[in-house]
Amino acid sequence: MRVAFLGLGVMGYPMAGHLDRAGHDVVVYNRTASRAAQWTAEHKGAGVSTPAGAADGCDLVMACVGRDEDLRAVTLGDAGAFGAMKKGAVFVDHTTASATIARELGEIAAKSGFGFVDAPVSGGEQGARNAQLTIMCGGPEDDYAKAVPVMAAYAKQCRRLGPAGAGQLTKMVNQICIAGLVQALSEGLSFARAAGLDPQAVVDVISKGAAQSWQMENRHKTMLAGHFDHGFAVEWMRKDLGICFAEAERNGAELPVTALVDRFYAEVEAMGGRRWDTSSLFARQENHRRGKA
Q1: Positions marked catalytic
Q2: Whole-prediction pTM value?
Q3: Domain 169-292 is of which CATH architecture?
Q4: How far apart are the first and last CA of the chain?
Q5: In this structure, are strands 133-138 and 121-122 parallel, antiparallel, or unpaired?
Q6: pLDDT digits (tens, 9 = 90+) for 243-289
Q7: Dihedrals φ, ψ of 226, to 5°?
Q8: Which CATH class is domain 2-162?
């Protein structure tokens, strides 16, 4: 299929690469043109200077940008993709954004004669590079059916959860759960050290039981080593949690633990960890432990 990809960041760059390797005719756009030039030097696809230029004539247009305002710019802004989408095409948004903008764009797309699927991803940079992403989708069933065979190029799991916005709401659940898990893991590892245990030996045991999680399996070693220059940045996690808090205000959900963890992430930022991986909650935990010792 002829596919456009808008946004070649840490996630979008390898995702677009998988589309090329799957045999699709890929056109890419990135706000920083040099990034698109780098991508086209490595792949068979072409780069263009506007989102509209990328979307023109494409069967599917995928996007993975930063925030609601970035998504609005590439869809509805000057030379935005929505102005060039052909009838029957589908726009697939992989951005972690609000459910509000997903519903808004879904309505505009339907009135304009093309489809829309909100499809935020989980799995981080590693998942994007290894084509092992989990994709949570919202939108009409027929739009999802058109998009899912193409998304298979970089997904290990893909599921439609409901109408437009359902994918974003599910991603919020994902981020809420991760926030609590990482803080719990940070506390557990710090407790193990304070108790005089070998934290690695402890993880070797408890990771085979009910405490096991992706965070434990994939982050405990770097946490214990104090290495955080990788993975999903704290500033982006706080952006995502802000979306969760705004939605909770609307639906009445209570997020007391998530709010506490967000405060801890603010402390990590104050430590200079704005771009550290989310597992850097452990650095804050250890600072507090050593301060009491």
Answers
A1: 171
A2: 0.95
A3: Orthogonal Bundle (1.10)
A4: 61
A5: antiparallel
A6: 999 999 999 999 999 999 999 999 999 999 999 999 999 999 999 99
A7: 75, 30
A8: alpha beta
